[in-house]
Amino acid sequence: MTAAAALTFRDEPRAADLARVREIVEATGFFSGEELAVAIELLDDRLAKGPASDYRFLFGEADGRVAGYSAYGRIALTRGSWDLYWIAVDPAAQGSGVGRALLHESERRIARAGGERVYVETSSRAQYDPTRRFYERCGYHVAATLPDFYAPGDGKVIFVKRVGVYTDASGSGTSGRPGPSAPPP
């Protein structure tokens, strides 16, 4: 059985998640100290404010241990746009489908909450080639590239995926199924 098949999902953070998130983000080797601080800050905000926080979390656990997590939230002043702020997987679980499972479940929850599009931002540096390919394989499309955004030679690549809002059989609510991966009009 793959690690992804053994995953269970949890969306309420616990204080103990702070140490595990720090461990995962540091272990990836992709993020700076400033980025690590932001990852912890988002989780701190959610722990302090609970559901009133602008940040939602999804933890993928295997054998009672967090294998990866995502952080996402609705983009203020939009009708149905959401940001995926973070998706990070323990290097020991990378390549086993954990990231894809977290992404799919995050999309499902976003759609169920009325989300129509998910936006993801990442670096244009060569180090992030695998990250960009991951999003493309998962149906995301480049919506914009901002050259030299983070630093000279380090642009921001913005991906988008339409997850769709579907009404259920009674005509009310949403089913939460991710929609087609075609680029938005």
Q: Can I get a quick summary?
A:
The protein has 4 helices and 7 strands; from the N terminus they run βααβββαβαββ.
Protein described:
The protein has 185 residues and is of the alpha+beta class. It has a single domain, classed as Gcn5-related N-acetyltransferase (GNAT) (Aminopeptidase). It has 4 helices and 7 strands, in the order E-H-H-E-E-E-H-E-H-E-E. It has helices at 17-28, 33-49, 98-112, 129-137; strands at residues 8-10, 56-62, 65-74, 81-89, 117-123, 141-151, 154-162. A 7-stranded mixed beta sheet has the order 1-2-3-4-5-7-6, sandwiched between helices. Helix 1 runs antiparallel to helix 2. The termini are far apart.
Any chance you could write out the topology, listing elements then pairs?
Elements: E1 8-10, H1 17-28, H2 33-49, E2 56-62, E3 65-74, E4 81-89, H3 98-112, E5 117-123, H4 129-137, E6 141-151, E7 154-162
Parallel strand pairs: 4-5
Antiparallel strand pairs: 1-2, 2-3, 3-4, 5-7, 6-7
